[in-house]
Amino acid sequence: MSPVGTIIAAQTVVKDQREEGKPGVALTTFDVTSLVVGAVVGADIYVVASLGAGLLGPAMLVAWVITGVMAGFIALSFAQCVAIVPRAGGPYAYGREAFGYFPGFLLGWALYLAELVAISVFPVAFVRYLRFFVSDISWWEDALAKVVFVAFLTATNYLGTRTAGRINDALAIAKLGPLFLLILLGVILSVVSPSTVSSNLEPFVPLGWGGLGGAIVLAFWAYAGFELAVLPAGEIANARRALPLAMAWGMAIVTVFYVAVNATVVMAMPWSTLTESPAPLATAMEAIVTSLYLPGASIGAGIMAAGAILSISGADESATLGSSRLCYAMAADGYFPRFFASLDPKRGTPYVALIFQAGFALAASLVGSLNGLIGVSVFFLALVYIGTSLAAMRLVALTPEGRLRFSGSRLVHLIALASSVYILLQTELATLLLGVLALAAGVLVYLWFAPKTEVAALKRQILSTQYLLAAVERALMVAPAHAMQHIRQLFQRNYSPRP
Fold first, then answer.
1. Cβ atoms of residues 247 and 405 within 8 Å
2. pTM of the full structure
């Protein structure tokens, strides 16, 4: 998942530009397509790659394709919403504009819960790949590793955007390289030893299709993040045509990439062996190198595991920043306790929100399983996507002149809505009950705190231009240099720092 804080930040910049009447930098369809790919692809593929093998076996590949199509339609609904409501808050703002303050708050509440649970996933994934290097980890060593992981990333965010950005830059170097190497070796394996590939893919559906829904839930978590690329809608040349095309092409590229990674993994080893590995991508790399009779199988696997650890750390650093900003934004709007909008006087970071979410993430990672935490996060995401799909239809009805080509169709939003509802219905009963209780708590929070006056001075400070640029650069680390140059120009040429 990409940081929701960047979504809020970049949308604020677009809003400010329109209000101030300043000229923008024209982004092409290619630029926006690259931003889609950069926003979606990240550490998530290391976390959930082939987790569904225990549900479907090699047929997990079908779940990745189906989920990619579903995510594509939902992405088009986001494109339509941001074209009409290009302001801070993402789904929080769409819901308010389409249905009023309370529905908007509930979407913001669900989004915050999704992000809060999401950052709890990464400490668990971190320890799973750590076990590749140190297999015999006791329960207290497991807990200590999670404590150190959460504390380190929280500290980097507390020290400020510049420090966090530099650390994340270093971590992002290993984001995709090992994955491309894995795919390349998988292609070579399929050519050199087709019998090995064939034996690992048969039977293709050893467990039947009963686990398809659960597999889609796991895969969907990796596709989240496409919301980020719709942010510079006001800076896109011929946006009515380019924006939906870029979303469609971008999600298609992501789907092909994800399927290629997972196809390589299931071709490398029997699915039953895959389900027992705490670090499936590293194990797959080792199996492929061994099958090709190449030297350094353990070294290749170690590189993959190290890449996973670094990428997971970078993803959680960005997610930590994002969720703390959403918490801050809702506190600044008066819907959370005012102290969540407190900033460190020297560093300008929302330290109360950071400390709170660090404690939550640590507690959840200690008691929750990887599959369980992902399921809870996807449940809340599904609620957000349902609200966004409904908001898209409502906004088009209220503002027909804002309708985009291709993504303004009611059929597109109905498919997005049906996809989101389907994902929601795959939720396990325990997760459903937990989600309902969390939403009920949100209603109580709203009734207790709303309405409040926005903390305007604090909001201006935390939404400073330097902070926004750093956040966007980290989230779009894998975007091509051409697209990143446009984003830099958008910030540096047209905006001056706010006091």
1. no
2. 0.78
CA 398 to chain centre: 30
More reliable by pLDDT, 488 or 334: 334
Provide CB contacts within 8 A for 79, sequence distance 6+: 230, 233, 243, 244, 247, 404, 407
Output phi, psi for 27, to 5 deg: -95, 135
CA torsion sign for 301, 266, 180, 70 is negative
Residue 367 lies in a domain: yes
Give CA angle at 316 (441, 306), nearest 5°. 145
Round to whole Å and give the CA distance between 325 and 470.
14
Alpha-carbon distance 203 to 180, whole Å?
Answer: 27
Tally the domains of the chain: 1
Look at residue 464 and give its three-state secondary structure. coil
CATH value at residue 93: 1.20.1740.10
Reported as a single tens digit per residue, the pLDDT across 29-40 is 777 777 777 667
The residue segments making up the domain with residue 41 are 4-494
In degrees rounded to 5, what are phi and psi of residue 269?
Answer: -155, 160
| 268: in domain | yes
